[in-house]
Design goal:
Layout lengths: L12 E3 L2 E3 L3 E3 L15 H12 L4 E3 L3 E2 L19 H13 L4 E6 L13 E2 L13 E2 L2 H20 L4 E6 L4 H6 L14 H4 L1 H14 L5 E8 L8 H14 L3 E6 L17 H6 L17 H10 L4 E3 L6 H9 L5 E4 L1 H5 L3 H6 L13 H4 L13 H13 L10
Parallel strand pairs: 3-4, 3-13, 4-6, 5-6, 6-9, 7-8, 9-10, 10-11, 11-12, 12-13
Antiparallel strand pairs: 1-2
Helix pairs in contact: 1-2, 3-6
The chain binds flavin mononucleotide.
The site of flavin mononucleotide (FMN) has 25 residues, from helix 11 and helix 13.
Length: 405
Amino acid sequence: MLSTVDAPYLAPGRIGALTLRNRLVRAATGETMANAEGEASDAHVRLYGDLARGGAGLLITGHLFVEQRGQYAPFQLGIHDDRCVAGLRRMTEAVHAAGGVIFAELAHAGSQTVMRDIEPVAPSVVPNAIYARQPNEMSAIDIGAVIAAFGTAARRAMAAGFDGIHLHSGNGYLLSQFNSPFANRRDDDWGGDADRRGRFLREVYRLVRQTVGSNVPVTARIGVTDAVAGGLSMEEGLARIKMLRTEGLDAVEVTYGLMNSYTENIRPYTGITRARALADGVLHRVFSSPVPEAYYRPFAQAVKRQVDIPVILVGGMRTTDTMADVMHAGDADFIAMARPFVREPDLPNQIAAGRRGLVDCVSCNICLVHEGSDALKCWRTRWRDLVRHAYWRIARRNWTINQEE
Ligand SMILES: Cc1cc2nc3c(=O)[nH]c(=O)nc-3n(C[C@H](O)[C@H](O)[C@H](O)COP(=O)(O)O)c2cc1C
């Protein structure tokens, strides 16, 4: 029996009223498995059943769009219509049958949508920092409608059997656009100073909380600061987290707000040693130093210094040593991973059985470049997938502009 002193990520953890079997979290990862109407498929049920059997303490879905205009990419899961509830319920049932816990990540893409037939909306007419697409400015009526859509989405999530709600207020999507002085140039009730910029997220949180009640955990991925010049300062980001904690937020997952590229958040080749690069055929990395792990650790430390709230640390967690170190230092309460779970859905069970060291994922980001085109999977586990990927790169019938490997 392994000691949870050596492996603190294996100890049970609490988020709100809920006890989780361990501190290992599957971070939100878009699945590209929905039908054209945003409804869940058998592939979703299999994926989340496998992840739950794999032993993670908490699963967070890929982002679910709360209204049609908020869809980010093709084949994304939606929660914008009552039609979506039945498929989502099949997913949560598969998770619960395996003893797992699952939160719904609620999101709106705002100016960051890559859907060609959606006219993007945003707080102000500021081209999206990643895709440079120009949005329409939201009216006060639009703003009220989107807040209401988050509330209705939370109601649907409860009807579908989710155990909690995770709000997506990071990585350039609509909530982080309102938070940012770069994207939010308004001077009305919804922008103009820090308090008014934070109002949209506060109102969304309040309505979601009112909808689910005080016993259901509500957590959020929050951009602590922006990666773009002239964006959200860390001081303002921390004050916003403090405000939400006072409102009752149960945990925060730290990340960037606005970004210039997805690779600022989804960093390639994190933690990859020479041996792993050789073993996995990532030959161009054999003579490079590993990209540092735990790249949001300074954000987690800053939150821990200022706010009394459970912190979920995501971003390049790749070795059990780093996971233990982060938790022993008190920098985070939960360890979240996205790409490693694409490759090894049963990673927590392996770790519980004594596996130590580096995860198998080399963070090549091939799974990322296929988001919106192909169902989520690791393209490195079978040679024929790698060959297919190489062909796809050459044919490049892709809809994205700025996703890099
Ligand atoms: C294919 C792919 C899809 C992603 N989809 C989402 C998403 O739907 N919502 C979200 O908050 N983050 C999403 N992310 C970001 C991850 O949650 C995570 O922040 C990032 O990959 C860094 O963590 P990692 O190093 O453990 O992969 C996605 C990442 C990848 C690779």
